Amino acid sequence: MVRDALARVGWGLVVIAVLGACQAGVGRVGAQDTGPARQAKPGDSADPTAAARNRMVQRHLVERGIKNPRVLEAFRTVPRHKFLPPKTRRQAYDDESIPIGEGQTITPPYDVAFMTEVLDPKPTDKVYEVGTGSGYQSSILSRLVKEVYSVEIHAPLGERAAQVHKELGYDNIRTRIGDGYEGWPDAAPFDAIIVTCAPHRIPKPLIDQLKEGGRMVIPLGDRFTQSVHLVIKRDGKLIDKELKPTLFVPMTGKALKEGPEPKATPAAPAQEPAKGSRGRGRSAKSQSKAAAKESSGGAG
């Protein structure tokens, strides 16, 4: 009987010890759960939009020819949904132009990537942007260069973009409200300039504020016929290369007062002196041969 009693007491002590251990374990987990939640950062595994961004980069950028690894990494880390109105955030990682208010849109990711890659941003660059818009393009650039200066003509957009930049900690972006046509003289000259709206011609202040050897990427044209151009400044002159068709919102402000570059007036055809009835009797075939011969010379 004594042995049975001791056995019962022993088993009771074991049960108490096990329960105590379980309660201690639960207490430790509870203590961990009540601590502050780790803040998700763009691009890390805790960020619920990281997978969508990675798909966007692969499907819309890599598979369409964007190769610069620094540019691709910037697109993997900058959260595009932060730059959109709440109702359209579900479209953030589609390759779409999406309205952001004031008659403006956020540029599709591929077009932003294409223009950024062509701009060839360097870590030491100071870049000027015309048209802050949503703030997405300047944010991409801020991951790639030393400083970004961006001007937006629509105050509500510029103010909202500046707030998003601040929330994301992108402190190398300077923004202000105004007409981007005039540039940012106090910060010039710039290593590179990017224009995210389409004027008919390159604004002269931008040419003046582009550093020697600097690059400019700009869409040029009328409302529905535009092309992206890469412009390089060498020896004070512009080397202009037309890259591909595009469609941006028109540049407003002072640019609206400027039409397209005037086209060269063709020279009047040379008049042959009258040669009597012999000249009047030439056949149409012989006349066309003479005209072709006159127009076949190239410029100096």
SSE layout:
Blueprint: H1 2-33, H2 50-61, H3 69-77, E1 98-101, E2 104-106, H4 109-119, E3 126-130, H5 136-142, E4 147-152, H6 155-168, E5 173-177, E6 190-195, H7 204-209, E7 210-221, E8 226-234, E9 237-246, H8 277-280, H9 284-295
Parallel strand pairs: 3-4, 3-6, 4-5, 6-7
Antiparallel strand pairs: 1-2, 7-8, 8-9
Helix pairs in contact: 2-3
Report on the architecture of this protein.
- The structure is a single chain.
- With 300 residues, the chain is α/β, with parallel strands linked by helices.
- 36% of the residues lie in helices and 20% in strands.
- The chain is built from 9 helices and 9 strands.
- It has a 7-stranded mixed sheet. A two-stranded antiparallel ribbon has the order 1-2.
Inertia-based shape: globular
Alpha-carbon Rg, integer: 32 Å
What is the CATH superfamily classification of the domain at 50-257? Vaccinia Virus protein VP39
For the record, what CATH class of the domain at 50-257 applies? Alpha Beta
Reported for the largest beta sheet, the result is: 7 strands, mixed
Could you tell me how far the N terminus lies from the C terminus, measured between alpha carbons in angstroms?
Answer: 124 Å
Name its key features.
single chain, 300 residues, alpha/beta, Rossmann fold, seven-stranded mixed β-sheet, two-stranded antiparallel ribbon
